[in-house]
Here is the input.
Amino acid sequence: MSAPQRLSVENLSIEFGGVHAVEDVSFDVEPGETFAIIGPNGAGKSTIFNLISRLYQPTSGSIHYGEQDLLRLPAHKVVYTGIGRTFQNIELFEQATVLQNLLVGRHAHMRRNPFSDFLFWPGVRKSEIEHRAKVEDIIDLLEIAQYRDERIADLPYGARKNVELARALCAEPSLLLLDEPASGLNNEETDDISFYLEDVKHDLGITLVMVEHDMNLVGQVADRVMAINDGRLLAIGSPDEVRENPDVQRAYLGVTE
Amino acid sequence: MQFLFKTAYNDDIRFLAKTGEKVRVAIVVLFLLAAPLFLQDYYLAELGLLLVYAIAGVGLMLLTGHTGQVSFGHAGFLGIGAYAHSVLLAHGLPFIVSIFASAALAGLVGMALGRSASKMHGFYLAIATLAFGILIETLFGEWSSVTGGHMGLAVPSLQVFGMSLTEVWQQYYVDLFFALIVIAGAANLFRSPTGRSFVAVRDSELSARCLGVNVEWVKIQAFGISAAITGLAGALLAHHLTYLAPDVFGVLESLKLLLMIVVGGLGTILGAILGAIVISLLPVGISFLKGVLPAGIGQTAGLEPLLFGLIIVLVIIFEPAGLYGRWMKIRFFFETFPYYRKSSFVRQKTYLKTDRMR
Ligand SMILES: Nc1ncnc2c1ncn2[C@@H]1O[C@H](COP(=O)(O)OP(=O)(O)OP(=O)(O)O)[C@@H](O)[C@H]1O
Ligand SMILES: [Mg+2]
Here is the structure.
C-alpha cells in the first residue's frame, strides 16, 4: 500500500442544468485523519464524492491527491492513486458471491490477460492464490467469513454494508471515501461499524473521509468535520465546534423541523 | 475452522470442487466420447450440431449472460465464421489455420462493434446489435464475388492435417474437441480476473469503474471473445450445412441463439449447454405437435417462430433463472431433503439501486 497523501480540494463547483449542486467548496484532508462531511439532504455531499471519484466532471476547481492531479485521470484510474470508496445505495455485484466481489476489489492489483485466463496458465493460478490470501485478511478483519460463499442478493442489508466496506479495503486504498456507512443500520450494527472503522484506521492507517448523518458516530470517529448546505461550505472544525456553529444549526433546523 | 479454509484455496479455485459435480461431468464427457459407438449416424450428426450450438451459446452467454450486454445480432458472427472459413478453405488454407483465422476475424469485428456499443445501454444496444445483424446478412447477400450472394456458397469438405474426415463420427469428434476446449476455457475465464471483470460490469458499472475496471475496454473484450467463440461455432456449423446462404444467418437465427441462453439460464455456462439441448429437441417437439394438432393449426406457417417466442415469454414469467435455476432447485431439494422449503430461493428483500448513474 502506498502511504496516505493529503487530499486537497480547491474551489470545486458543479452545476446540473442550472442547479449548483456544489459551489466553490475547498478543503484539505490530512494523511491519516478521519474527516466527516455533514449536511442536510441534497446538500451535495455525495456529489463531492462523485467528483473526487471522477464520476462527475466539475465545472471548475481542482482536486489533488498528493502530487497527483485527479482531474487528469479517468474514473477507473482513480483507485490506482490509492483512493477507494463505498456508495450510499450499496453498489455490490448482486449476482456474484461475496468472495467474487472481494476479488474484484483486488482488480487494480491484478494482471489480466484474457488469453492466459482462458487457458488458466500456472501463473494465473498462482496469482489467484496470492490475491485470495489478501482477501482472506480483510474477511478476518471485518468478520464476514460466514458469508464468504453467499450471493449478495441473499444477504441481509447490514451484511451488505460490511461487504461493501470489505471490497473497498481489498483495493488497499490509502484514503477511503465512505458515503453514509451507517445509514439504514440499527444501533448495534452502527456500533459494529464504528468499531470496524477504528480497526481500519489503526491497523491499516487509512485516511477516512465519510459522509454521515449519525452525529454520534461522527463524534466518535471523526477528527474534523465539514458542514455544507445547498452546495456551499458552512463550517470546518472539530465535531464540537461544528455542532455549535450557528449557521450549521440554522441549516439543520430549517430543513428538519 | 479458519485455518482449514485457508489451506484450501486451491480447492476453491478448481472449477469442480464437489465430488458430485466431478462425477456428473465425468459421466457426461464419457457419454460424449463413447456416443459414436452406440448412436446411429443421424443422431450422431444431430449431437454434433448440438455441440456446435452449445459453443455458439457459450459465446453469446459470455456477452449477454455474464457481461450483461444483449446482442440481437449474434448470427452475424456465426455467419462471419462460416463464410470466412469456407472462403479460406477454398483458397487452400489448412483447416486449423482457417478455423482460427475465421474465429479471429469474427473476434475483431466483434471488438469493433463492442467499441461503438460500449457507451450504449438497454434499448439502444438492442437496436444497434440488431442493425449489425441485418447489415452482415445483407453483406453476405450483396458481396457475391466472395460469398456467392444469394446463390450460396459450397463449403469445402472437412480435412484436418491432410486427412479427409467425411464420416459422421469423424466430424463429430472435431465438434466435440472444440466444444470441450471452449467450455473449459469459458469456465477458466470465470475463475480469473477477466471473467470477474465481465460480471462486475454486468452488475454495477459504477462500482466496477471505481475499483479500477476500465468498463469500456471490458465491453470491447467481451464482445471480442464472444464473437470469436461464436465465429468458431460458425466455422464448424459450415461443415454441417455444407452450403451457405445469407438467410441462414438472419434475425431469426440471432433470436434462436438468444432463446437458447434465456431458456438455459442467463449467467451460467451450463445454461448455454442446456439451452442448446432444448433448441435441438425443439424441432422434434414441433413435428410431434404438428402431428397431434388439428391440421388447420398444425400446418400454419410461422409455427416455429411463434413457439420460440412463446417459450421465451413463459420462461421469463415462470422461471427467470432458466433450466439451470430449475436444476439447482431440484438438486437442493434432494441435498437438503426433507428440509427443502420453497422460500429458500425467495430473495430476502430487494433494495433500491440508484438509477441516476450507471
Ligand atoms: N447526476 C445528477 N443529475 C442531476 N442532479 C444531480 C445529480 N447528482 C446530484 N444532483 C443534485 O445535486 C444535489 C446534491 O445531491 P447529493 O446527492 O450530492 O446530495 P447529498 O448531500 O448526498 O444528499 P443525501 O443526504 O440525500 O444523500 C441534489 O439537488 C441533487 O438532485
Ligand atoms: Mg448522498
